[in-house]
Amino acid sequence: MFIEFDSKKLAKQFSDAKSIQKTFGDMSKGILARLADLEAAETLADMRTLPAAHCHELTGNYIGYFAVKISPNYRLIFYPTQQPPPTLADGKSLDWSQIDAITITEITDYH
Question: Are 73 and 111 in contact (CB under 8 A)?
Fold first, then answer.
């Protein structure tokens, strides 16, 4: 999957393992694991097969976004780069199998 970042600052923070470690400390192992999973996936549908990632669509203030688990509380938040995102025949549900590029926006504890 192709990964972009929502800002230059975020792209710099995610530029390499050393930057990730410096910026995120103890969460860096989880972040590196999820980035590797996302990069290896052909589409977002592949992420559903990884229970540790717990990839899911968000609701409320984050409608249209997705999250993957970094730690028990923290999530990596992203949205499909293609806008509007591809939908299934019902026109409402997102077609995860057609999402092959994402834009990462933040790492947060939204719980």
Answer: yes
